[in-house]
Records
---
Amino acid sequence: MSSKLKELTEKINQYINSIELVKQPEELYLPVDYCLNNGGKRVRPLMALLACDMFDGNIDHVTGPAVGMEIFHNFTLMHDDIMDEAPLRRGKPSVYKKWNANTAILSGDVMFAMAIQHIAKCPPEHLKTILDLFNKTVIEVCEGQQYDMNFETLDKVTEEQYINMIRLKTAVLPAACLQAGAVIAGASPEESRLIYDFGENVGIAFQIKDDWLDIFGDENTFGKKSGGDIIANKKTWLYIKAFEMANEYQLRDLRNAFTNRIFNPEEKISMVKKVYLELGLDQSALDKMEEYNSIAIASLDKIDIAKEKKEDLKELAQNLLDRAI
Amino acid sequence: MSSKLKELTEKINQYINSIELVKQPEELYLPVDYCLNNGGKRVRPLMALLACDMFDGNIDHVTGPAVGMEIFHNFTLMHDDIMDEAPLRRGKPSVYKKWNANTAILSGDVMFAMAIQHIAKCPPEHLKTILDLFNKTVIEVCEGQQYDMNFETLDKVTEEQYINMIRLKTAVLPAACLQAGAVIAGASPEESRLIYDFGENVGIAFQIKDDWLDIFGDENTFGKKSGGDIIANKKTWLYIKAFEMANEYQLRDLRNAFTNRIFNPEEKISMVKKVYLELGLDQSALDKMEEYNSIAIASLDKIDIAKEKKEDLKELAQNLLDRAI
């Protein structure tokens, strides 16, 4: 990580550490503290600070809103884990498991208000713009989560529907963070749009890599148990493309696996993985990721500022896609 | 209801009807529509409009934030019903019953963002003040709900703790609505504080009346089944005072009833109600309500504007306490 990335991450952590998180009633606030200090990489607020820095803005003006976005992100994790019945988050019990669902609902709700408190620390002349951006983003993230849940009961999901879902669920938040940083730094509407597009496409690329890692990643480096998406019958990019491309034998295997006629999890994973490999989807997914990454880079390149100013942001994006951080 | 109250309620409903509530994905938005159009009386936004009108403000400037507060209020109902396992809301299945808990969580979350969207329609010069007021209020409402849940497992709750809980859970939101109306109308900080105090104390009085109605109210007029708080072992004002004042025989009956050693619900209710009546708590609760109402009126009286300007607000508060509307 470059010294700039380290320095800005440190700044974000200092700000977060300065928030009085544990107050009364502590049943409400302990889960907030637990969730916010659970080893998150602060990627989203870092993006806001980097974008602000790139456009020569005052980073202190963006730290509040950036942390607000991070608190909002952690709020979505707290609620999503209930809905997705995900018992673990970054290797530790998720809030609804450590406490219970009611705690995760209410502590999440209070985090939402805390998020806006920090967003409201934005310079007054930008408050309306940043608040509108934030609200639009929150609504889109909720829509993305709803589409994701809808997919569970749909027979067929198209690639287009899938990309739209991950755009909403995953990509618009980093995009909004970048745009917030740019707006507060005084970037033009066109520059703000370009950096948003950069973030959105990096976000989509990131999620496709995430799907890939779940199946082809190294369990030890990646931290999650390999094949979780297959076990959960998740309609990922790989799943969707496999059903599109499979011949009749492969289709039979996929159907057997995903309708749970294969009960042994290891067997199910290896059966699906075999089809994915036969169809060359391990490489196609990486190509698709690269396609979105190229669109992202093209947007960033269009921003008319010195190339070296964009280096830190490019490094962060590359790190995300390489999963080196 | 006075023609002014009717006219302003109509204005609020027109604004709400103009919001495009049912969008895609409809699984997310249908519950929002259902919840927002479930026969709510619009008391909170009405308070905001009345306060604005009282200080000669432009009502159109406050309608957005007022509706934002109403959407937030409905969001809390959607999440509280999950936590409190309340199957009915205004006589109809609550969202988590009609759909499921995940739907109530996510549709609630999107309502929170929608609430802020409408709050953001406030005139720009007041946005920061109104947003800070809103965030503070949301956090307090969450704290109130947490205290209420904590009380379930506490052996002893004092009257002071109880009043503080209902202040947070119930009273600060109408108080904030009134203050928002006053601020947007250009009222002084002192006037804004006084109208906030009025709302807070009316809110506390209202909740004590609500506790009273649950046991001594007429089931047909009130709409809720009588004695629900007793069945749920809720630590209401009546419960707390009864345990404080009871002699040893009454104490034995209360303990038997509330530790569920009495299994028949009718028997449990009549046993508790008998003790409440013996202790004169039916009258004491009304006296306590009147005490808070008097504090409220005293705050309103201190505001230095013509008496007749305060009439509509007084009428609304009185209607609430009489439950005529």
---
Amino acid sequence: EISPQRLAQSLAALGQVGALEGGGVNRLALTDADRLGREWTVARMRELGMAVTIDAIGNVMAVYAGTEDLPPVMTGSHIDTVRTGGLYDGNYGVLAGLEVVATLRDAGVRPRRPIAVAFFTNEEGARFQPDMMGSLVYVGGLPLAQALATRAADGCTVGEELRRIGYQGPAAIGCPVVDSFVELHIEQGPVLHQQGVQIGVVEGVQGISWTEFTIEGVSNHAGTTPMALRHDAGVVAVRVAAFVHELALRYGGRQLATVGSIQLSPNLVNVIAQRAVFTVDLRNTDEATLACAEAEVHAFAAQCAAAQGVACSHRRLARFEPVAFDPLVVKLIEQETQALGLSALRLPSGAGHDAQMLARVCPAGMIFVPSVNGLSHNVNEFTEPDDLARGAQVLLQVLMRLAQR
Amino acid sequence: EISPQRLAQSLAALGQVGALEGGGVNRLALTDADRLGREWTVARMRELGMAVTIDAIGNVMAVYAGTEDLPPVMTGSHIDTVRTGGLYDGNYGVLAGLEVVATLRDAGVRPRRPIAVAFFTNEEGARFQPDMMGSLVYVGGLPLAQALATRAADGCTVGEELRRIGYQGPAAIGCPVVDSFVELHIEQGPVLHQQGVQIGVVEGVQGISWTEFTIEGVSNHAGTTPMALRHDAGVVAVRVAAFVHELALRYGGRQLATVGSIQLSPNLVNVIAQRAVFTVDLRNTDEATLACAEAEVHAFAAQCAAAQGVACSHRRLARFEPVAFDPLVVKLIEQETQALGLSALRLPSGAGHDAQMLARVCPAGMIFVPSVNGLSHNVNEFTEPDDLARGAQVLLQVLMRLAQR
Ligand SMILES: NC(=O)NCCC(=O)O
Ligand SMILES: NC(=O)NCCC(=O)O
């Protein structure tokens, strides 16, 4: 049995690193805070006697040896956060994995296969896009060189920042090869909490589309330039952003759409914006609908830009089709949940996760625990300690079943 | 006759201060660049033997003595710029005023009344609101203490910055008392250039309304939060901004509307915005229509905020009713323009100007010269040298007529 106290303590301790005044944490990928978080976590891995390797994109893998030298069963998640994040997103999956290892070690249990606990670089995609970058590189979905060259809005590249914080490791990409992967995570949405269910059995991850639009107009005086003569980049940005919101309402169902970032230049009250850069985040469990939403947004942006006489360009920041998890892993999670006498609900994941990348190379699945009021990417993100403990216990059972095969 | 070369040289020299790579200038009010611009201009005033005084809000007045000790006829404008401004906005009026004094001095001419050349603090309102702050304080329209306490988005106050750059002077507010005020300025709009007219005779300034809206929602995960459960501050910002644009088109005529500044927090691709701060700039020559536009925007913002379940507050950054200039000064400008054989057009000013504040305490008027393609608040702002010279010559004639009265 896992120790709820030890798990809670480790979450609180890692939550101190990059803590924000008034709660929550800012540990954007590859910042100094991320480095400190990595150091704390690696130290904990070493305390548990695990063999730690770091690969060329900064993914950290720690292995608890099995009785046979087989590919490990892996768990894990990420420890980077958004700028105003909570203490659970990602961190919980990593620390619960280490809690499982601590429990096995205390009990003197060695499974047949090794158990690996990993944390992947830049899962959030808040500073560098795409999200799930480390796991995507790990599975060969993004060339290492391209990932390293990715530049943040602050001007830094992934490669520079990895070297600066000392986390570009010697391990080869894709090593170790894993047997299977199970990720434990807070739901980040409202379903389990609202329905009073203890464990979410994740069937898959919805499709994700991130696009950055750049509008180039002409700055001019807000008081002297007739409406008809304007080339206002800001007008195009806000019209497209309003359209994106209406599109989600019009599609209904599982369509989500968010404009979370807008930058106008020069961003002054009496100057017509010369440039606008904004992002569009579209999600759907259905690939065809997602593609249709993307096409509508692009067409509307082009039409608005033409009407305003400005240039409109865009680049894809991330694009992942919906992913279905391995049916046997899903079934196993459901069975072990029920065997522990816990209530279970099958559901899709709204957020992207490293498990969806690992699913490209091995049987993979995910376990969710409830998020109070469905809050995440918010400093008030919270999961009840009992739910945290239940999730870790399910993880232990599932990992042991996989590792004993 | 004024010297076109000397005028052009002084504009080029002041344009070096805070020059941007690739053209244009950044001399936001009370920055180090503004201090350097002030030093350059004060040195030029002293070279001309003028008596320089600086008041408690940093307005700088230089007086060329007349034959009698009467209240001076004043000209001038401002030397602060927007973040990506041109070389003419404001600077031209100040330097043309000094060119008039240099011409009189070279010719050994002393008018009956003194001639004063002033530059007023923070006319642009780009860093601190309201705009025309120095002239507004000068005429008693804004208490000094309130102006000094005004805080910029960068956290600094007007008072701190004035003291830091050494421009909080000993002269009392409202001194010297002036006889009359004439400001020479580039049009900043397209009318004179499009119609091929040499001199604009400004009849008044349209009304200006600046409001800052702050929307407070709840940040949450873009991938997990159903549309119906969101409290997205960004959605309200973009809907209101799009409405503001549509309102201007719907009103037609002389209604202008601009959302030049938007700030989302945390401003990340996959995080629903917790806070949005944006500005609305509304202008109209008709006060009743302007008030009606303001009321519509407020009502729509409140309605959007309610629909999204977020808080909406606002503060007035600036509000000036339309101003009519003194009919005799307007007539005098028109007569002197025609006497020089130049073409003239009566028109309203789209931009706010220090002259509209001075109009509260003395007969005031303005002279415009054409802006090529109506560009302003843009690094490519340009006025032909011949037009610059013509405007300065009209200014000389008008000032002499007023000073000889
Ligand atoms: N789990 C999580 O928050 N991932 C970030 C990527 C996303 O936006 O879905
Ligand atoms: N002349 C000028 O650009 N003034 C700035 C204030 C305004 O926005 O009208």
